[in-house]
Amino acid sequence: MKVLLIGDIGGFPQGYAHIKPPVNYTHIGDEAMMLATYHWYTHSFPQFALTTLSWKHIYRLPSLRTQYHFVWPTEKLINRLYFFPFLIKLILWKHLQINHFSSKEYKFVKLIDLQDVIHFTGGGNLTSLYPSWLYYSLFVISAGRILGKKVVLASQTVGPFKPIDALTFWLIVRAAHYVGLRKPLNLQKSLFSRWFPNMKPMLDSAYSYTPTKRGQSSPIFRIGISIHSWKNFNDDYIVRLATSIMKSISVTEHCEVIYIPHILSSNKDMDDYRLYVKMKQKLPKNFPFHYGSVSKNREKSVAEVKSLTSSCDLVLTTRYHGVIFALSTDVPVIALSYDSYYTAKHRGALSFIYGKNLSHYLIRLKKNTPYDDIMPKITCVLKNIRKEKEILRRYNQNSSTPSLKNLTIEVQPNVISSRFMQPAIRTI
User: Fold this and answer.
1) What pLDDT is stored for residue 369 in this prediction?
2) What is the fold of 221-383?
3) Helix (H, G, I), strand (E, B) or coil at 426
C-alpha cells in the first residue's frame, strides 16, 4: 500500500515572484501535523510505503521518501483558472490516452497515479486567503478520485471563501472519501450531513503528536507567550500588547515568561526571534522574560516546541498550534484572535473541550482594544489554574473525540475505507 502525505511543509511555498523564499523556513504547526501522521502510519501500518511532498527540505526519516510539491501558479486569477485546463488534460489522459501535459505536469500526475492513498495531513489553507494552495489541493483531490485513489483530508479548517471559490470547493470536496473538520459538528438530522456524509469532526493531527519527553516544569509560575503579527496587527502593536500584559500579570503573580517560537528561519525578518527581541527591549532589564531556544533540526524542533509548551502553567497565544500544543499537554490557554479566519480556527479547537464556555478562553483583538479589556479573562484563568489544568487532564485521559489515535484504515481486496473507531464527542 502506497500513501502520499500532503502538507504545506518542508520550507516556504515556492512560486511567488515577489517573495524571495526565506532560508531554513520551518512552520512548526504544519510540520507537527505531518510528523504526527507519519508516526501514526509507521505505528499502525508499518508495511505501508510512505512518501511526503515537501517544498525544499529532504526528510531523513525511516520509511519515508520525499518528493517535491508541484509549483502551482501564484499570479492573481491565473492561480484559479489554471485548475480547469489542468483538470481537462487529466480527463483526456485518463479516458482517451491523450497527453497534453507539460513535463512537470505529467511527472506530478504520474506520482499521484502511483499511490493508493492521498492523505492531506491537515491545515487551515483551504480558504480564499491562499488561492494557490486551495486550487492546488482541489486538483489533487480531483486527480486522486479520477485515478481511483482513496483521498483523505485530515484535520482541516475550511474557509472563509469568495463565492466562486466556495462553489468550486464544495462541489469537489464531496469526492473525497473522508474530510476531518477541526470543530465539533451537529450531524444529527442535518442537511449538511446529507450533502457531505464524508465530513466528520476531528481534533487537529498535531494534538496526537507526542514528544519523547515533557518539558521540565519550573518552580516559578511559568507563562508561555507565542504571539505573531498579522495583516494590520504589525510588530509594534503586538509588542505593546504583549509587554503590557506581561507587566500587568507580574504585579499580582511571581512568574517568569518564556517566548515560544512557531516560525523558524535564517531570515531575521521572518523568524519569531525578532519579536522576542523587540519585546525584551520594552521590558525592564531584570524582567524574567526568556526565549525558548529550539534545535535547527526540523524534526527535533517540533518536539522541543511542544515540550516547551508543556513546561508552562499558562499559555497566551495568537497561533492556532500554540492552542493545540497547550490543550494537548494539559496547559490552560488564552487564545488571542485577529479576525474571522483565526476566530474560526481557535473556536474549533476550544469548543471540543469547553463547548459553549469557550468564550472564556478566546479574546477577539481589535486595533482599538486596550489591554485592560483583555486582563479579566486572563485573571480568571490564573485564579482557577489548578481547576483549569484538571479539566484538561480529565479530557485528555477520557476523551473519545475523533483524532488520529482512533482513526483506522480498513484494507480489503480492491476496497480501502476509513472510519473512526470511536466517533462520539465528549465535552467537559
Assistant:
1) 65
2) Rossmann fold (3.40.50)
3) coil
- Provide the 3-class DSSP secondary structure of residue 226: strand
Query: Quick one: cell of 35?
Result: 510528523
Q: Are 227 and 245 in contact (CB under 8 A)?
A: no
At residue 193, the pLDDT reads: 74
Angle, CA of 104, 106 and 111, to the nearest 5°: 100
Q: pLDDT of 149-189, one tens digit each?
A: 999 999 999 999 999 999 999 999 999 999 999 999 875 55
Query: Hey, where are the domains in the chain?
Result: 2-209+401-420, 221-383
* pLDDT, tens digit, 9 for 90 and up, residues 5-20: 999 999 999 888 777 8
Architecture of domain 2-209+401-420: 3-Layer(aba) Sandwich (3.40)
User: 3-class DSSP state for residue 408?
Assistant: strand
**Cα distance between residue 149 and residue 142, in whole Å:** 10
Query: Per the confidence metrics, is the pTM higher than 0.85?
Result: yes
- Facing residues of 156 across strands? 123, 181
CA distance 410 to 400: 20
190 has a pLDDT exceeding 70: no
Amino acid at 352: F
As a dihedral over the C-alpha atoms of residue 283, residue 286, residue 289, residue 290, rounded to 10 degrees, the angle is 130
CB burial of 287-321 (b: ≥16 within 10 Å; e: otherwise) equals bbbebbebeeebbebbbbbbbbbbbbbbbbbbbbb
